[in-house]
Amino acid sequence: MNAPAPLLDTALTLATNSIPVLPLRAGKIPFGNCRTCAKNACGGRPNMKTPGPCTCPAPCHAWAAATTDPNVLTSPQWAAAWRDAAAVAYHPGGAGLTVVDLDNAAAIAWARETLPATRTVSTTRGEHWIYRGTMQSANAVRPGVDVKSLMAYARWLGWGAGAMAALPASVGALALTDPAAARRVPQAISAPLGGQRGECPHRTPTYLARGIAMAEQSITDTREAVHTTVYRTFLAVLSTHGRCGCLTDTHVARLFTAAQAKGETPRHCTDAWTNALTTLGL
Questions:
Q1: Other CB atoms closer than 10 Å to residue 166's CB: what's the count?
Q2: Of 60, 94, 180, 280, which sits 20 to 30 A from 38 (CA to CA)?
Q3: What is the C-alpha to C-alpha distance for residues 143 and 260, in angstroms, rounded to an integer?
């Protein structure tokens, strides 16, 4: 038997330390679902309220595929994914952990002033602060701050430095939202942007700006079949801009905002976006 590839070797080491892992492809995106689960035909494990491993033989359903079982990680069904993988991810909640993802210097400065010191891992743009304990995951709890724990995944970037502290109440409070306010204030996206792996073919930034504005208007103007309109609009945007790296969180947040203004929930927005990604193979 050949020695395991470096990423699989890392995954197996993490699994022996009770950290559930899964492969990621380029762009920090999980692998698409298997044929049985394509387009979430099986119901989509991440859409369920109770966390747990995906029961599919392939690494389906993002965070729900994370496992500590070496037989699964080295199975033939996972072999192709590991060959094409660009990184290893883990399910923090499954490991009893919470990751505070700090995306820039301002967010790091806020954490140092506000949160208790804990184990820290450097990222490409900021830091992961890791605490013992689990909580509801939430995106954009503050500018540049996401919380990843239950039903979420985080990229593995090493063991980090520093003693790991218990999850403080101040972090748990970040995910608490007043229900009335949640209906008024659109939530940030929790879905990946897309492939982001090709050279941008567009002539000017105006092309993208016009496309996003037209997509927002399409959603805003619809008077019926809102679910269908939102999905088709997301599909159209991704088919044009999903592979070249044009889209940013700001662009996608504009689309989510328009959809939520028509009554779509954040969950419906995320599901529509994820389904559009899957349909296009992104």
A1: 10
A2: 94
A3: 20
